[in-house]
TrEMBL record:
This is Hydrolase, alpha/beta fold family protein, putative, expressed. The keyword Transferase does not apply. Residues 78-334 form the AB hydrolase-1 domain. The keyword Hydrolase applies. It comes from the Eukaryota. The lineage of its organism: Eukaryota, Viridiplantae, Streptophyta, Embryophyta, Tracheophyta. One of its GO terms (molecular function) is hydrolase activity. InterPro entries: AB_hydrolase_1, AB_hydrolase_fold. Keywords: Hydrolase, Signal. Residues 1-27 form the signal peptide.
């Protein structure tokens, strides 16, 4: 019996050697694709806590920054959700004079895993909405508040329309990023526009959708096509966007913002963001949402190099209840457009009408 388990010369059979080699390769691959654990702020070995923070429903902390008038004296309370690679210091850039005139208190926060907000290993569309609600409750913003979201951070707006519509008094979305695989989009047009992206961005979105667990490994391979948004290497068709991109790279601002955003780990900030936004939306998609009991405004530049204006138009036409504001000669980064922050705030708040 013993002889039957070995080769002719007493060595292990070829099948066993192949199995052992496969197990070794599988073990290497599992270790290679497993992202490192996060380094939460305030934990041993993690970055220090420097921001004001509140505790949310599951014990995590959200870091936030306030602007405008004092919370206690405000007529309007606005929560701001930043875009990809952003943070709590971002805003629509409305003037302080306008915020004071209208009595606006605005709070921006680091979304989960960004900046000084604790990572959420179970981050989802629903959790994005719940974080906004928990932040509002912790700061005692009252039964209703306004919401402004930017770029990729607008998935939190769609989720809020779905899960916490009773808490919102109004919402504005600034160039909301699109998932090309939403079933409600025209397939032919979405496919055509998807293929116009840089190859690295196409592959990044493909991995985020089909194999989000592979993102950390994929994005760290220099020989694979990866995101030009993360590297800052992709040019923009809009002159102001491109000017600001080059300036941010040359001054180091781009790198500084990325370090701040990912200081607890790139997996729990950038890559979880990509997995939620560009992955599967199993519970709903924007085209299925019913009209919410509050006004919704969407601002979109017609020279946006990140979000195809054609798909944005389709979504707004299909839903019907969104007040669509298309901006001629404007790109993706709306907060950089002089005066636009004031326009967004005055459009959103009824007292300014």
């Amino acid at each position: 019996m013993a002889a039957a388990s070995t080769g002719n010369n007493g060595s292990p059979p070829v099948a066993l050697l192949v199995l052992m080699a496969a197990a070794m390769v599988a073990g290497w691959f599992v270790n290679a694709v497993r992202p490192p654990p996060p380094t939460p702020c305030g934990a041993e070995g993690g970055p220090p806590v420097t921001a004001a923070r509140v505790r949310v429903r599951d014990g995590r902390f959200l870091a936030y920054a306030e602007s405008g008038v004092r919370r206690e004296a405000a007529r309007f309370k606005v929560v701001y959700s930043h875009g990809f690679s952003g943070g709590r210091m971002d805003s629509p850039r409305a003037s302080q004079a306008l915020l004071k005139e209208l009595g606006v208190y605005m709070v921006a926060f680091d979304r989960a895993g960004y900046g000084e907000s604790d990572p959420d290993p179970r981050r989802s569309l629903r959790s994005a909405a719940m974080d906004i609600q928990d932040l509002a409750d912790a700061l005692q913003l009252g039964p209703k508040f306004h919401l402004i979201c930017s770029s990729l951070g607008c998935h939190a707006a769609w989720a809020s329309f779905k899960y916490i519509p009773h808490r919102l008094a109004g919402a504005a979305m600034m160039a909301p990023v699109i998932n090309y695989r939403w079933p409600g989009l025209p397939r032919g047009l979405a496919r055509q526009l998807y293929r116009r992206q840089p190859v690295g961005d196409q592959w990044s979105l493909r991995v985020a959708y089909y194999a989000p667990w592979l993102l950390h490994w994929w994005m760290n391979q220099t020989w694979l096509p990866t995101s030009t948004v993360i590297s800052g290497s992709g040019s923009f068709p809009n002159a102001l966007d491109e000017k600001n991109r080059l300036m941010a790279l040359s001054t180091g601002l781009f790198q500084k913002k990325a370090r701040m955003a990912t200081q607890q780990g790139v997996q729990d900030s950038f890559y979880r963001d990509m997995a939620v936004m560009f992955g599967r939306w199993p519970e709903f998609e924007p085209a299925e949402l019913e009209k919410p009991p509050f006004p919704v405004h969407l601002f979109q530049g017609d020279e946006d190099g990140v979000v195809p204006v054609q798909l944005q138009r389709h979504i707004c036409r299909r839903l019907g209840w969104i007040s669509y504001h298309e901006l001629a000669g404007v790109g993706h980064f709306l907060s950089a457009v002089p005066g636009l922050g004031d326009r967004i705030v005055t459009t959103l708040l009824p007292a300014a009408a």
